[in-house]
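In response to reviewer comment 3 from the previous cycle, which asked for concrete evidence that the modeling workflow produces usable outputs, we include below a single protein chain processed end to end. The sequence was submitted unchanged, and the resulting structure tokens are shown without manual editing.
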Amino acid sequence: TIGTAPWASVVAKSKPYDPEIFRVCEEAVIHGHVVALEYVDKAGKASSREVEPHGLLAQPPVWYLLTLDRTRGAPRSLRIDRITRATPRRDLRFDPRDPRTLFPELKQLNLEKPSRGKAL
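The workflow returned the following structure tokens.
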């Protein structure tokens, strides 16, 4: 999913993401397996999570992993530049879902660019 540019404050606090972490996340979205993550939130608090990655959202230059967080039992959008470790759990599979069903705000916030003249 490609979205509009993020707020300037988000860009100012973002940093380049680790390409290997991005690769692990992308592979998990494509193949439907769980990822164990180490994540640092906006307050600087570190946490461990197991997530089902259902999609990627690009708001250039910031990327988000759209997940169902198994640890918290809720959908979460995680900035990829805040993921400090990503370990594929190919032994744990899930049925991929359209991220718009997990994140209805994608449509409400008009984050997706129209495709062939139609908004998603």
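Residues 71 and 98 are 20 Å apart (CA to CA). We consider this sufficient to address the reviewer's concern, and the full set will be provided in the supplementary archive.
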